[in-house]
Amino acid sequence: MSNLDLRPTATDCGGQSATGPVRDLLTGRTVQLGESTRVRRLLPTLGRRMVGAWCFVDHYGPDDIAGEPGMQVPPHPHMGLQTVSWLHDGEVLHRDSLGSLQTVRPRELGLMTSGRAISHSEESPADHPRLLHGAQLWVALPDAHRHVAPHFEHHPVLPEITAAGLRGTVIMGTADGATSPGTTYTPLVGVDLTLREGARAQLPVEPDFEYAVLSISGSVEVDGVRVEPGSLLYLGTGRTTLPLLARTDAAVLLLGGEPFEERLVMFWNFIGRDHAEIVQAVQDWDQGDRFGVVHGYTGERLRAPALPPGPLKPRGRVR
Question: Which residue intervals define the domain Pirin N-terminal in the entry (predicted)?
């Protein structure tokens, strides 16, 4: 998925330092995505830039798209990151410059590793379900792996964890002994948790990871803080268990990982290490070099936005 803002500001990747547990509730801002989809952007925000290597989180829906085109994101480039597509309702058709053509459905992992360069498009199929509801996430690649060959993975079956009134699908990484088949390049985890009303759970977590919980639907208390749909609770580090209490039937995404210490530049759909690298990526995309061609999408590809007047500076996670 793309950042479609044609006048983006440079994003200071990284985040505020957090040693030990915290409870920082963040609300998203509404962003127009493509022709007809509006999303709530939870990362990056002014108060929080990253959670582990997770550096971008959009939550969208549930939207009634009966008789509407639904998601329509034209071909656009990515560099230095992974995209994670996750649905609760609907279908998204993924095309990329490697020739991949895959429909991603609810609770299936669509994982694209851009590495040095890739381009892709995302759209609701012509004959699509009525509802569209899900999340799009990015993972920053560490320096040692950010130039890997681009590739796309589709995992229709993922491992699950269960407890009384709780079912979890492990999207990325390892949780409670269950490991996702999705390729990771830093220690991280992503879990979709579905809870029945009244369910209480103590979810085991890694004390060296920082965590956040994104509310997808319903109402849940996370470590005593009520989290409603479209909000993100940043939890910091230092926990071994995470208390959960479902006030209604609810679903949340648990995101976590080792704090990402590298200094990054994130502009539009590119993650690099310095200004010159981003400038080169913009030029390559506009000139049709390096990122390949997405075949089969009806419509024009996106053009890169203008670079800001000043140099882009790499930033760490600590302000």
Answer: 38-139
Query: Is 122 annotated as a binding-site member?
Result: yes
Token pair 């560490």 in the structure block, residue: 142
pLDDT at 1 over 60: no
Contact yes or no for 214/171 (Cβ under 8 A): no
SS3 67: coil
Residue 30 clears pLDDT 80, i.e. is over it: no
CATH number at residue 241: 2.60.120.10
76 is known to lie in a ligand binding site: yes
Q: Is there a contact between 2 and 302 (Cβ–Cβ < 8 Å)?
A: yes
Residue 310 lies in a domain: no
pTM confidence score: 0.92
- Distance of alpha carbon 185 from alpha carbon 82, whole angstroms: 10
* Residue 213, domain extent: 21-257
Residue 205: partners with Cβ closer than 8 Å, 6 or more residues away: 211, 239, 240, 241, 242, 256
Dihedral sign computed on CA atoms, order 299, 132, 110, 184: positive
How many domains is the chain partitioned into structurally?
Answer: 1
Distance CA 268, CA 282 (A): 9
Q: Which residues pair with 121 in a beta bridge?
A: 95
User: Residue 222: enclosing H or E segment and its boundaries?
Assistant: strand 220-222
